Amino acid sequence: FRLAEIYLNYAEAKNEANGPTGAYAPVNAIRARVSMPAISSLSQSQLRLRIRNERRVEMSFEENRFWDPRRWKILDQSDVVSTGMQWTKVGANFTGQRIVVDRRVTSADKFLIFPIPSNEITDLPSFIQNPGW
Q: How far apart are CA 30 and CA 54, in angstroms?
């Protein structure tokens, strides 16, 4: 858990609860650390998108991306296709082309929550299986 994640969580909560007014400072603190310009004068929805992008950049390769789209309930809008680069050598030069590596099938809303194991449903009839499972 890093300080940058705490700042981004705080900014996200502040923006969702009260609009962008109190949410700029934590985001700009992260941006200032790497000499990025401060952000300001955004609507709540614009700042929401900026905070999500900041999380994507700041937290890349830290395994948070798996949970963020689920928490935001935007699985159907993100991460449907994974891409990679295919490099080809032509003489002394290399050329790269983006290729599709994987198509994810986890974009339906049912993947926002896990299924309850069937043996639990059998043992406890009052349990109701999660939607979609």
A: 9
